[in-house]
Amino acid sequence: MLKAIWMSDPHFSHEGDVLGHDPRVRLDSALDHINSNHSDASFCVISGDMVNHGTQVNYEALSQLLEKLDVPLLPMAGNHDDRKLFRKILSLPDSCMDEFIQFSVSTSSGLIVCLDTQKSGSDAGELCGKRLDWLQNLLENTAEVPVYIFMHHPPMAVGLPMQDTDGLIDGDVFLDLVSNYECVKYLFIGHVHRPISGTVRGVPFSTMRSILYQAPAPRPEWNWDTFKPSEEAPNIGIITISDSDVNLQYEQFCLFEEGTRPK
Ligand SMILES: [Fe+2]
């Protein structure tokens, strides 16, 4: 059995205020919770938007805080990240592509694939030919081994304003590819700051709350002009995989109020 931790969108800032929340306090709380309750996990994936602004000082402060985590870390790129600084400051598995923060990790329960869906200068995402070829090559050579994919941008609409304009461009091309391989068992998706589960082309998927701030439910309707984070507590995900069966527990690690600005 494999046990892994899934965090998403910490939007870390050394200055300590992003949309009324302190990312230092929130991430610290999540790390304490993991160390106290889940130090038996094999690794912890953070599915992108490691920092709110891709500056050296943010990555350095983030890296320093992450040192307290007792579980090996698999960090991923999102639209808020800076690839160059990310690679310079955070450690990545040896299997990582040269140009992209895209890699795979082999486990006794299957292959963990972490994609880089960042499109430079855009909040929407992309998987260019090089990244898609890398994935196709991996799936071709995987044979019977189950594959679990983590990615920042959703490849399909999920019914939220923030995603449906800022999702993965040409997500259909990605879905055409992965739905063609039975070895692909699950998609774990960041970016939307809200928990949603379903299937797409027959492949199960889940999204995750942010460590920092949450997207409101689709109703009452909202858009970027009216956007205000909902007053919901953050979650981490506890993933267990056994014989290709996936169990995802959404676990609250602090109250909504923790790390919010005094009103
Ligand atoms: Fe994002």
UniProtKB/TrEMBL annotation:
InterPro entries attached to this UniProt entry: Calcineurin-like_PHP, CNP_phosphodiesterase-III, GpdQ/CpdA-like, Metallo-depent_PP-like
TM annotation in the entry: none
Keywords assigned by UniProt, alphabetized: Hydrolase, Iron, Metal-binding
Coiled coil: none
Pfam families in UniProt: Metallophos
Occurrences of domain Calcineurin-like phosphoesterase (ranges): 6-195
GO terms, molecular function: cyclic-nucleotide phosphodiesterase activity; metal ion binding
Record-stated family: Belongs to the cyclic nucleotide phosphodiesterase class-III family.
Protein name: Diethylphosphate phosphodiesterase
Organism, scientific name: Puniceibacterium sediminis
